[in-house]
Amino acid sequence: MKYDNTKIVALCGGIGGSKLALGLNNILKQKNLSIITNTGDDFLYLGFYICPDIDTVIYTLAGVNNPETGWGREDETWKTLDVLKELGADTWFQLGDKDLALHLFRSKEKRKGELLTTITRKISKKFGLSTNVLPMSNHMVQTILETSEGEISFQDYFVRQKHKPKVSNISFKSKKPVATEAVNKALLDKDLDGIIFCPSNPFLSIDPILSINRIRKLIEKHRKPKVAISPIVGHESVKGPTSKLMKEMGIEVSALSIAKHYHGLIDGIIIDKSDEKQIEDIRKMGVKVKLAEIIVNTEEEKMRLAEESIEFIQEIAL
Amino acid sequence: MKYDNTKIVALCGGIGGSKLALGLNNILKQKNLSIITNTGDDFLYLGFYICPDIDTVIYTLAGVNNPETGWGREDETWKTLDVLKELGADTWFQLGDKDLALHLFRSKEKRKGELLTTITRKISKKFGLSTNVLPMSNHMVQTILETSEGEISFQDYFVRQKHKPKVSNISFKSKKPVATEAVNKALLDKDLDGIIFCPSNPFLSIDPILSINRIRKLIEKHRKPKVAISPIVGHESVKGPTSKLMKEMGIEVSALSIAKHYHGLIDGIIIDKSDEKQIEDIRKMGVKVKLAEIIVNTEEEKMRLAEESIEFIQEIAL
User: Fold this and answer.
1) Cβ of A100 under 8 Å from any chain B Cβ?
2) A44 in contact with chain B, both atoms CB, cutoff 8 A
3) What is A8-317's CATH number, 3.40.50.10680, 3.40.50.1980, 1.10.10.10, 3.60.15.10?
4) Which of A156-170, B103-117, B183-197 has the lowest mean pLDDT?
5) A163: left (phi over 0), alpha (psi -120 to 50) or beta
6) Helix/strand/coil for A132
7) Distance between CA atoms of A19 and A63, rounded to whole angstroms?
8) Which of A89, A97, A123 sits opposite B97 (nearest CB)?
């Protein structure tokens, strides 16, 4: 295979980023792909320890995700949730019957004292993956949003309040902001070819990962090419509330802003062909630019964008 | 209605006893029926606080039980359990998707600090019942079996090991063996007409209730008629492993043995018509006997046995 010896670390959030993660997973040897996944959205719900982004990544890579919603599992049923509603429980978070089993399993392992990294590896294997899906932390990190409705947690903002509150600031709370052994190992691997920032929301999905100082430092000083894929096309986000959020925080919605946001961390950025006129401004910052069609829907398109990302890394490495 | 003013306390376990409980529930005003239910089988499983007997009683009275198994809900699905098995979890206890919601709800309320009695009342109401389904205790009481395989808990014995180990002794462990306020109130109610020992396993379902000293004392000295319905017909238990257990513990399998077991606590016992020849021996103990067909399958038969139980109480009261 073309990329048999290519080793990549990707930074990824949920739905948006996992599209590229799937492409990478399909073209690389799974064991050569490490996906450092955002856990800033993790929360406790009905006694479960829920990791929405890790679940989305695993479901997507394993091909059991719900292609319509982007989250949750295909052919899902909602029997437990229906009865919970009848019982009068607060069911603002959608728990499918199959999905529930994963939360149950993870919570059980957590209570046994297992590390989230170990649990995630177990789950990945059970879903037939050799890919290194790596939680950014083994400890709870909480993405906190300062909004028009006060300070709220990610799930409250995103799911319960359907990202309606206006956001003025984002911060990350953690008692133990240390990089896990597995993340350290992946980033320090001498055979690593490059680091890819998936087209996830930079503020809500990638920044939580970078909030762990050790991870940010390792990436900052990494000698191998680091490239981002813009989650913005024109003045709109490809997926989710990125553009709404940027406007509220007074940031111009453009690929250029994404390049600025990652400045100092990336060597290059892939932006959409339609954003060609931004090339010069980005290059002025010392960031290389590659054009591609970054809206990817089919599995083939996702693999194509993954190939272009790796080619970009190889070009930069020359 | 015939029994509009009749007020009954029933002691009940799971499947066997709830047949009569359903009969009583159908012929009495629900608010006039208090069912003190065994919680000695309660256990923690995958983080859930599970009360098998309370659930069976509520499901049965609400008419949503699985008529084939006797436990769990009708039209049940097993999606969560299937995925849990795929994930390699130890799934020896059957958790249906609808059933799971009840465990989830109860566990959530428990964590909030609610008493089991309060939670059970909430759940009963949500299932449309005004019946007082009363946990025998708000605290964990554990039925422990000394067996050929060592000392094991009820669920381990009954479900995991399919009641195969030979039982030599049964005991009940509790840190706080106190009667709940609701149980006290039900037994001290001056309008109470009588107490019925449902045809549950005396050793595994009724004895845990009686292991709470206050409950035993209140029943012992109660002036209203107290009647039991034998769970034994001939030399076999109507349901479950009662007869196997009695043999292992060196107790003759007969209605007479049941009368002996409850001696000092009951005024009368209903035994099967086919056990007529035991009448004299039971009467010699000072216990009244009534004959009935105690194997009840249809709802009509259950109501008929309930009526006969109440008539028996009325006869004794004369």
Assistant:
1) yes
2) no
3) 3.40.50.10680
4) A156-170
5) left
6) strand
7) 11
8) A97
Q: How many CA atoms lie within 13 Å of B95's alpha carbon, on the beta-carbon side?
A: 31
CA distance B246 to B233: 13
Domain ranges of chain A: 8-317
How many angstroms separate the first and last alpha carbons of chain A? 21
State pLDDT tens for residues B236-280: 887 778 899 999 999 999 999 999 999 999 999 999 999 999 999
Query: Which residue among A89, A98, A105 sits closest to B89, beta carbon to beta carbon?
Result: A105
Q: Report yes or no on whether pTM surpasses 0.80.
A: yes
Interface pTM (ipTM) of the complex?
A: 0.86
Region for residue B234 given its phi and psi (left: phi exceeds 0; alpha: psi -120 to 50; beta: otherwise) = left
Cβ B108–A101 below 8 Å, yes or no?
no
Find the CB nearest A101 among B83, B102, B123. B83
pLDDT of B281: 97
Residue partners of B76: CB distance under 8 A and separation at least 6: B66, B96, B97, B98, B99
Cα A101 to Cα A78, A105, A166, B292, distances in angstroms: 12, 6, 34, 47
Average pLDDT over residues B20-47: 96
The shortest C-alpha distance from A91 to chain B (Å) reads 11
CB B299 within 8 A of CB B22: yes
C-alpha–C-alpha distance, residues B22 and A172, integer Å: 55
State mean pLDDT over A11-29.
97
CB B232 within 8 Å of CB B255: yes
Distances (CA, A) of B46 to A280, B81, B87, B155: 57, 11, 13, 14
Instruction: Examine the pLDDT at A306 and tell me if it is beyond 80.
Output: yes
Residue with tokens 């109401």: B125
pLDDT higher than 80, residue A28: yes
Residue A133 makes CB contacts below 8 A (sequence gap 6+) with A35, A37, A54, A57, A58, A61, A120, A121, A124
Best residue of B87, B90, B98, B120 to probe chain A, by most A CBs closer than 10 Å: B87
Compute the nearest-CA separation of A119 from chain B (Å). 11
How far A318 CA sits from the closest chain B CA (Å)? 44
pLDDT per residue as tens digits for the range A50-95: 999 999 999 999 999 998 888 899 999 999 999 999 999 888 888 9
If pLDDT is split at 50, 70 and 90, which confidence band does A2 have?
A: confident
User: How far is the CA of A310 from the CAs of A33, A307, B152, in angstroms?
Assistant: 12, 5, 58
Token look-up 């969560």 returns B80
Please give the Cα distance from B72 to B134 (Å, whole number).
19
* Long-range residue pairs from B290-298, CB within 8 A, at least 24 positions apart, any chain: B290/B227, B290/B315, B294/B199, B294/B229, B294/B230, B294/B233, B294/B238, B294/B270, B295/B233, B295/B238, B296/B19, B296/B20, B296/B23
Residue B205 confidence (pLDDT): 97
Q: Does B108 touch chain A (CB under 8 A)?
A: yes
Q: Which residue of B has its CA nearest to A121?
A: B87
